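Handoff note, outgoing to incoming analyst
You'll be picking up this chain. Sequence as last confirmed:
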Amino acid sequence: STPTANITASIEAFRTDQAQTATESHFRDLTMTATLWTDTPTPTASPTLTPLEAALERAYAFGDLENPTNGDWQPFVHLFEDGVPMVLVPTGCFRMGSEDGHEQCFDRPFWIDQTEVTQAQFARLGGSNANGSCYLGENRPETCLTWFEARDFCESRGAQLPTEREWEYAARGVESWVYPWGNEAPNANLAIYSRGGTADVLSVPDGNSWVGAADMAGNVLEWTSTTYDQLRFSYPYSLNDERDNTDLSVNHRVLRGGSWFNDGDDLRAAYRYRVGPPVQFNFLGFRCARFPDS
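Most recent structure output, in case you need it:
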């Protein structure tokens, strides 16, 4: 007789073989998937600019706009490590001086102090004023100091006194406004003038310039680094009139901005005055400027 096959044993053998085949296939699939994942490049996110980096990019590009206006620039304030807030002044051109002026252009942005240097800032950062400030008050401008003392304070911060060209551009903007706030005549809500002394900085924010700089008209006249050529009382303006000088004891320096002592006409952003570097007045203060790489 023919022997009967062990059906149960055959079924178990078939199942074992199928399970082995399925396991091998599964691991082949996993290996292939892992290889595909490894070979596919992982997309990287674009670097996110900090607010400061974004503002500087915008400041460099501002001069390339067609027919820019002062209102096209949004003021940007940065608090530097020394604790003094400065406003960013973008690239661009303006007409310097009155009577149509002469075009002056900036191909890189710069910073200028948001306010005139205050007595609190001056004391905290170790400023030296041999005579002491006039009209005492922590938030009032530092006054009654020489050009040399103002220059040294700015340099101690890694900055410098602004040239009158830098100062006027920060005040007037690409539209070359008559005053920092526009072409409207001065009033008590726009500037500190025709009164008996200084006031706290930022007392009249409606008078801020197009870049957000306060008191660029009134409160105190401000030292600049620019040499005043006594043999030439009008433009054209020469860049050699700025920081290139030899005799610091004789050369007059340009003052800008009008003061509490002046009337409204002297608050024009193109208004210039000059005194010798050793002079101190109770209506004379300063602010500092710096470039992004300083």
